Amino acid sequence: MADLSHILQKVKERNVAEAEFHQAVDEVLTSLEPVMDRHPEFISAAILERMVEPERVIMFRVPWMDDSGKVHVNKGFRVEFNSAIGPYKGGLRFHPSVKLGTIKFLGFEQVFKNALTTLPMGGGKGGSDFDPKGKSDEEVMRFCQSFMTELQRHIGADTDVPAGDIGVGGREIGFLFGQYKKIKNVFEGVLTGKGLSWGGSLIRPEATGYGAVYFAANMLETRGESLEGKVCLVSGSGNVFQYTAEKLLDLGAKVLTASDSSGYIYDEAGIDREKLAFIMELKNVKRGRIKDYADKYGVTFTPTDSNAEFNPLWNHKADCAFPSATQNEINNTDAANLLANGVYVISEGANMPTVPEGVNQFLDAGILYGPAKAANAGGVAVSGLEMSQNSMRYSWSREEVDAKLADIMKSIHSNCVATAEKYGTPGNLVNGANIAGFLKVADAMMAQGIW
């Protein structure tokens, strides 16, 4: 079998102290070893060496003024990773933890995820170490305007189309779009996640969460089961959590948990629609903390302990888990706890939320495991549909977009299953997703020559 360790070693040497990027590359390379045995032309064309190197990395300063007149300076990033099958596409993340390695790992993952959607989108990612929490709307607006003043040089509807991610919701997208339009003097689909009255798509806010649930339903269908009556653990409390929980309720499942950086709540009675509406208002309007839910409904709140060996959210009896917060939120002990508590369906709504040792536990146990680049592709899929609607100057109905999303997630699942089997690892959707996404991009790169 092809030995690709030299590629990972070179990535580590060239990208020092970027552990998340190394992790993302390692996972893909491990999956691709059997592929390279069958396709020596990819080796001679150095496809992998080209694919792990971004086409373009953009870094810039973002100066802005707070409400008291004090000037702050943050870092801005955009990594345009691969455009073989379409314009760069991927979100913007505003969070204090953002650094270049974070954006590179996310952009690399996006290349394969976008290829799986069946839509013509390349991979990219961007963001800043700016923290929108605790900032006024005016401060967020000034930051977004400064950020876009630089970013607008590098993006466009047929070049690079950013979207939202952690810390970037409808408010931020609005401010970013307004500044782009003012500077460029053009109204185009340069951002996705826009408001419905100015080019947005129905179902776009819901898409990542809905898609993760549809993917779980597709996995269960292979065993003749459904989500009806399933008990679910879901992390996060933002956009992905909210619409994962909503769709789970639609399909008859029970949601027990929610979290933010301060801790998590466990509601044994289940988070019903009234309680979910409270979380949505709490997070989207009041921008409060999840402990407020515990205070209102009298349930258990467990504060985050940064020194703990495991996250207690993943240590409850359940059938399904939907990690929907952030990368590496499930460590090796968490994975063992999930399996010990009877969880046999995991559909990842966040990007790379499970450490490699945890992933191996899930695969060895033979559970239904949907890796992020497949299971959470619904968000970028509907972003692609938003781009299509912008190009046509047309809007599809909610039902049409939801049906298209469900079809895309079913297609992704089927492709992952078939590809995993074709390359000798039946049931391993990690391999299926990585290989299927890689082959689409690699074939395009081969056809377009060396660039």
- Biggest β-sheet: strands ordered side by side in the sheet: 1-2-4-3-5
So, the CATH homologous superfamily of the largest domain?
Leucine Dehydrogenase, chain A, domain 1
- SS field, number of helical segments: 17
Helix content: 40-55%
- What percentage of amino acids are in beta strands? 5-15%
Secondary-structure arrangement, i.e. CATH architecture of the largest domain: 3-Layer(aba) Sandwich
Query: Radius of gyration over alpha carbons?
Result: 21 Å
Distance between the termini: 28 Å
CATH class group of the largest domain: Alpha Beta
Structure commentary:
This protein has 451 residues and is α/β, with parallel strands linked by helices. The chain folds into two domains: 5-188, Rossmann fold; 207-370, NAD(P)-binding Rossmann-like Domain (Rossmann fold), CATH 3.40.50. Helices cover 48% and strands 15% of the residues. The protein has 17 helices and 13 strands. The protein has helices at residues 5-14, 19-38, 40-44, 47-51, 100-116, 137-151, 170-184, 207-221, 239-250, 273-284, 291-297, 332-340, 356-365, 372-375, 378-392, 398-422, 429-447; strands at 56-65, 71-82, 88-94, 123-128, 160-164, 231-234, 254-255, 257-260, 263-266, 300-303, 320-322, 345-347, 368-370. Strands 1-2-4-3-5 form a five-stranded mixed sheet. The chain has a five-stranded parallel sheet with strand order 7-6-11-12-13. Helix 5 packs across helix 17 (429-447), helix 8 (207-221) packs across helix 9 and helix 9 runs antiparallel to helix 10. The chain is globular and about 60 Å long. The mean pLDDT is 97.
